[in-house]
Write a structure and sequence with these properties.
mainly alpha, rod-shaped
Length: 162
């Protein structure tokens, strides 16, 4: 048909084959982005765990004072875990807000480079909810060791800490 109209063709490809090839390339790209996101999440959890450990070490005397005023190990543990969860929640919210313009830029770039046209931009509510839940679970895991350490401190050890 194209040859009859005066166009030179070297080969033809069925649109379903082209679609399949493009889909396979996009899947590789998406999988790479998800792997990078998971790696960054792990680094974030390790950073928060380190920060919570330092926080407990710096506030050891405060926990001793709280214990002398009647706070039990459970109360101390809850305080540290609540702080860790608050940091995780705030970090997750800030990350979600910061991700919107970055995602939009990546979407435009990928669309222009691969298809020479913009791709549709959509935000997945289940995806955002899943990452928020993972951020809270990661924050709880990050704070657990520090919270356990803080709750095991004795009054004597806490107040003698320099």
């Amino acid at each position: 048909m194209l040859a009859a109209a005066g166009y030179r063709t070297d080969s033809t490809t069925l649109s379903r084959e082209l679609r399949s090839a493009v889909d396979e390339h996009v899947v590789i790209f998406v999988d790479t982005l998800v792997a990078l996101a998971l790696l960054m999440a792990v680094v974030g959890v390790l950073g928060l765990a380190s920060a919570m450990t330092i926080s407990v070490t710096e506030r050891t005397r405060e926990y001793g004072v709280l214990q002398t005023l009647g706070a039990g190990p459970g109360t101390i543990r809850r305080l540290v875990l609540t702080e860790s969860l608050a940091i995780g929640l705030l970090g997750g919210a800030l990350g979600a807000v910061a991700a919107l313009p970055v995602s939009r830029s990546v979407q435009r770039l990928v669309g222009e480079l691969t298809f020479d046209l913009p791709l549709p931009f959509t935000v997945s509510a289940p995806g955002v909810a899943t990452w928020a839940a993972l951020a809270l679970v990661g924050a709880a895991a990050a704070g657990w060791a520090a919270a356990s350490r803080a709750s095991r401190l004795t009054i004597r050890d806490s107040l003698a800490h320099l």
